[in-house]
């Protein structure tokens, strides 16, 4: 029963939320969608801050809401990180953390120690400061540490980076990844930013107009050509891989994933370390023959699985299967080419093709 | 500037009255302000209007009805008599009760404004940190509303010190029991003791100035006549 089941309806004059989703009770689940899609409302319903008129909500078998049941937010084992500064202004950073420590349940299986939370978020030097003496990024890190110290069994994060500028955002992302790596804490993460989702999420719930329009693992949902949200330039896949080799001379690293491998810039990751790579659809071009005299490093033999027209009628999205003939392991890539090229290459399901990858990013 | 023993008694009585009233007002006014700031009840408007009545009504009207209410045949009078407490008019307790009603808006409105100013967010945060409603009130509402509470206490105190009409209607002029400074000044003037009236009046002016000066220096956003938002 390791899952979160939400069957909720919320009726407002301007907006309806109507979802029926199941999310895994571990890892990072992203509620992804444009603003106004209902992702924050869904998160608030899960926290109990908003009371859905009808529906049912279960967390790992526990009933949080049903027709005659409503567990108030202060009795749910959650931590919540709000979008903008939410530190108590009458308390110092330390006071804010202690507010959580004092109220955390005593009986916890694997409690997060105060020092661990402080270290994970890198806020050791900030504890004496008042919220107004902290930068936006620092405030958000303290708020995340505070949410951890309440010893939640589910961490809810409502666009914790949205109010920050890019440098602050890049400052916090590694802390979030650390959180994910070090704690066995399921996280529901609301975001409208494809790059954050690609970096952090394992599971995706795509929201539109108050409905969940696609759910599934990140790799599955992002490689679907009928993915309902228009990602435009951000369309692309995310693959879980492992560093297999590092080439000292050319400063490149070989990353293997199910069904294939790519060479990319050596980012300093040790051999055998797990990395996540993102390949955007616009960065994959297609060729009938393997190009020998090209600067492109990565060319993978693939098979066309599906072809559709993109948002712009001049462009086509092509889903490609990359398969290891020995093991049968496979992954999917998405390429975006002009519709004319697709026609000239005669692309159709089953066509063998070379996927030339212009750029791969470790995220 | 000299004070007669009767003046000193009046000063002491006034301070005692204002202190009791202020404490009671904070006790009654804070939950009321909290309720007014958060409720969506249809009672919000009528209750707000009743709380604000003393700002617009002449003290004599307020005093008159309080007198009837607390008198031997009034509902409260019958209750206090049944409890063996006698009747409240022309006693210190009666004066305290009347002053609480009279100064209520000066306490409720600053607190309500402060609570409305910080909004729902800190309370939602506290709820996700496992703080129940009562815990939220003490750990978030009170500290966040502190400037409002301070303004409320100062205004409640000063307003009680400055009342006259209600005291005359409810308390009369009993030395040591209901004869407060404002009434004592009136007595001095009636007796053509202008020097005595001047001493006490000057004291009141200085006191009021110091209080208001401190209030504005401490909390520049405090608005007097705070009565109406």
From TrEMBL, chain A:
InterPro entries: AAA+_ATPase, ABC_transporter-like_ATP-bd, ABC_transporter-like_CS, Mo/tungstate-bd_C_term_dom, ModC_ABC_ATP-bd, Molybdenum_import_ModC, Mop_domain, P-loop_NTPase. It holds the Pfam family TOBE. GO terms for molecular function: ABC-type transporter activity; ATP binding; ATP hydrolysis activity; molybdate ion transmembrane transporter activity. Gene3D superfamilies: 2.40.50.100, P-loop containing nucleotide triphosphate hydrolases. PANTHER family: ABC TRANSPORTER I FAMILY MEMBER 10, MOLYBDENUM IMPORT ATP-BINDING PROTEIN MODC 2. This is Molybdenum ABC transporter ATP-binding protein. GO terms for cellular component: membrane. Keywords: ATP-binding, Cell inner membrane, Cell membrane, Membrane, Molybdenum, Nucleotide-binding, Translocase, Transport. The keyword Cell inner membrane applies. The gene is modC. Residues 1-234 form the ABC transporter domain. Residues 293-363 form the Mop domain.
Automatic annotation (TrEMBL), chain B:
GO terms for cellular component: plasma membrane. Residues 11-215 form the ABC transmembrane type-1 domain. The chain crosses the membrane at residues 12-37, 49-70, 82-104, 149-174, 194-218. The keyword Transferase does not apply. InterPro entries: MetI-like, MetI-like_sf, ModB_ABC. It comes from the Bacteria. Gene3D superfamilies: MetI-like. It comes from Mangrovimicrobium sediminis. Keywords: Cell inner membrane, Cell membrane, Membrane, Molybdenum, Transmembrane, Transmembrane helix, Transport. It is found in: Cell inner membrane; Cell membrane. Pfam families: BPD_transp_1. PANTHER family: MOLYBDENUM TRANSPORT SYSTEM PERMEASE, MOLYBDENUM TRANSPORT SYSTEM PERMEASE PROTEIN MODB. This is Molybdenum transport system permease. GO terms for molecular function: molybdate ion transmembrane transporter activity. Part of the binding-protein-dependent transport system for molybdenum; probably responsible for the translocation of the substrate across the membrane. It is a multi-pass membrane protein. Belongs to the binding-protein-dependent transport system permease family. CysTW subfamily.
